[in-house]
Amino acid sequence: MQIISSIQEIQQRMLQLRAEGKTIGFVPTMGFLHEGHMTLLQQARQENDIVVLSVFVNPLQFGPNEDFDRYPRDIERDEQLARETGADYLFYPSTEEMYPAPMTTKVTVTSRTDVLCGAKRPGHFDGVAAVLLKLFNIVMPHRAYFGLKDAQQVAVVQGVISDYNIPVTLVPVATVREADGLAKSSRNVYLSERERAQAPAIYQGLQLARQAAEQGERCPEALTALVRDHIVSHTEGEMDYIQLYSYPELESVSELAGTFIIAVAVKFARARLIDNIILTVE
């Protein structure tokens, strides 16, 4: 695995690989890798000749009350995991390399951002879109891999790719789960033993909604009530939100048809957990 921190160097290398007819799979991250990232890398490894992992903590997507400097970093561990999972290149630029001068343009995401987690993080997805536009131009991948645990981010990225005609295929990858269904997350370590035993109820509630939809339920409020009631009665966590929208548009629906997402966020004492399911009905 080669570690590259220069934009010019990795661009030249990617152009050379593309000229040789190699397909490039790309996994953009902010580092502090976990099993979810490994799953993205493994799928990219299976589907491409070359796999590129980027590690860059992007300051543009941090709000004024979010501490960019406290974001967890462990580049030595990231290097080891990337190497073990079969990445060919680790792109690890500095902030100065990515933003050598103040930006003269601004990317604004105008839809899909004012619901779910984005509702409480104004400007967050503008920063995500801006850095991804840069990374897609730097790495020039054929495919880019994103986890569906953050399905809102996937929807926003798909919009950016479509709006700007970026020649990359977005590959959404299913959420990685523990044996009991809990979505894997670095935040799970902050759960107490009691909370950890309760946390699988989040996915159980989502599965109840899935079953009801498959059996013909078409009322959005009925499905979200199923999820809420199960989580409230089986955990001591505080419901942050339980919402249902069309997907990937993330627009309100009065009756279920086509593809939609049910997403939930639950606050425990020291961890806020998110999860979702995406369903398609006629």
TrEMBL record:
Reaction catalysis annotation: (R)-pantoate + beta-alanine + ATP = (R)-pantothenate + AMP + diphosphate + H(+)
GO molecular function: ATP binding; pantoate-beta-alanine ligase activity
Subcellular location: Cytoplasm
Active site: H37
EC number: 6.3.2.1
Keywords annotated in UniProt: ATP-binding, Cytoplasm, Ligase, Nucleotide-binding, Pantothenate biosynthesis
Known pathway: Cofactor biosynthesis; (R)-pantothenate biosynthesis; (R)-pantothenate from (R)-pantoate and beta-alanine: step 1/1
Entry's Gene Ontology cellular component terms: cytosol
Residues annotated to bind (R)-pantoate: Q61, Q153
GO BP terms, alphabetized: pantothenate biosynthetic process
CDD domains, per database record: PanC
Pfam families reported for this sequence: Pantoate_ligase
Subunit structure comment from the entry: Homodimer.
Family designation: Belongs to the pantothenate synthetase family.
Further comment found in the protein's record: The reaction proceeds by a bi uni uni bi ping pong mechanism.
Protein's name in the database: Pantothenate synthetase
